Amino acid sequence: MSIKNVAANQPDSFEFTKENLLIKDLILKKYPKTKIQSSVMPLLSLAQSQNNNWIPLVAIKYIAALLDMPYIKVYEVATFYSMYNLAPVGDYFVQVCTTTPCMIRGSSKIVDVCKKYISEKENQISKNKKCSWVEVECLGACVNAPMMQINDNYFEDLDEKSAEKIIKDLMIDKLPKPGSYRNRKNSAPEKNRKTLLETINAK
Ligand code: FES
């Protein structure tokens, strides 16, 4: 797991837009009044989506004030979860899972592809500003390992070749199709295999 990257250049102010203030009210309504601080996570996500996929420190302070929470508590949440970015990311934000199932199935090759085509180090935005990448812990799609998340979509059952094609396409704003790259339907077995005993089709 990488250490959270916090932007050196920070904006001076942040507040929700008119539309997002309405969404904020809808979010707060979902929580009992005595547990309102539990809405910290969706509010952080809302701030991130408003601010080009990253959360400035002033937004963390803003949410802390909204929820009457100490700043450090909101900061702890924002730094704990990999889904929150505290520094600018590329238009296409590539998160490569490198936890054990993905690692066993070759995620290091996907990391190498990111290093080659996006940037040598994670959290660096590519020269054309299109992409940045980061290693993350399990994204819950182990059955389709190895995989990566790009913005809101999952790309699964990857190998070096398919990952390379996806990243190259992103660099020229060509949007690749999400899902399995071994033509599986979601996480169903390949080649219509129905049971684990049907090894004949498992190649
Ligand atoms: S280990 Fe990669 S998705 Fe779970």
Give a quick rundown of the structure:
This protein is of the alpha/beta class.
The CATH topology of the largest domain:
Glutaredoxin
CATH class of the largest domain: Alpha Beta
How many strand segments? Answer: 5
- The helix-and-strand class reads alpha/beta
- In CATH, what is the homologous superfamily of the largest domain? Glutaredoxin
Extract low-pLDDT stretches: none
The best one-word shape is globular
What is the CA–CA distance across the termini?
A: 33 Å
Overall mean confidence score, pLDDT: 94
Widest β-sheet, arrangement of strands: 2-1-3-4-5
Q: List the total number of helices.
A: 7
Provide the β-strand percentage band: 5-15%
Q: CATH architecture of the largest domain, please? A: 3-Layer(aba) Sandwich
Q: Percentage of helical residues?
A: 25-40%
Small molecules bound in the structure, each named once: FE2/S2 (inorganic) cluster
Radius of gyration: 19 Å
How does the major sheet shape up?
5 strands, mixed
How many structural domains are formed by the residues? 2
Query: Order of helices and strands, N to C?
Result: HHHHEHHEEEHE
